[in-house]
Specification:
The protein is mainly α. Helix content is 81%, strand content 0%. Keywords: Membrane, Transmembrane, Transmembrane helix.
């Protein structure tokens, strides 16, 4: 038993001298046959857990942001598509109105070609009056000639 106590103290001191630079201390195992490794502080575990948490959070936030952007993109696409459909309907309506206006313009041109202007109308009225005067004059001449013939008889 004395031998085990000495070996334990020797192991303890050698472990103490080895770990002095790191400030880690350990004692010999209760069985005394093997020297245990110095106990390590888990300083990297906290950093590792923090980094894992950060990356997990960043990944989740990025995933949520991505799906949010996809939803916003789909909503914007649907809005643009509906605007394009409305624009197409409006363009079709405008084309229909343009065709109607072209048809009315062509009818107006045809009417303008077939109608007379104010000057032409005045000329035609004067010509008609001249013809009526000529017709009345001829009628009166024929009537006078017939009266003369009746009186001669």
């Amino acid at each position: 038993m004395f031998k085990t106590i000495i070996s334990r103290s020797t192991n303890y001191t050698s472990t103490l001298y080895r770990a002095q630079g790191r400030r880690l201390y350990s004692s010999a195992s209760s069985e005394g046959s093997a020297v245990s490794e110095p106990a390590k502080r888990k300083t990297f575990a906290g950093i590792r857990g923090g980094l894992m948490g950060f990356f997990l959070g960043a990944t989740l936030a990025g995933g949520y942001g991505f799906f949010y952007l996809v939803e916003q993109y789909q909503a914007a696409s649907a809005l643009v598509l509906s605007s394009v459909n409305e624009l197409e309907k409006t363009a079709t309506t405008i084309q229909t109105y343009v065709r109607k206006i072209d048809a009315v313009e062509s009818q107006l041109e045809a009417l303008q070609k077939s109608t007379v202007s104010r000057n032409e109308h005045e000329k035609l009225v004067l010509e008609t009056r001249k013809l009526a005067d000529t017709f009345t004059k001829d009628y009166l001449q024929v009537k006078a000639h017939l009266l003369k013939l009746e009186q001669d008889r």
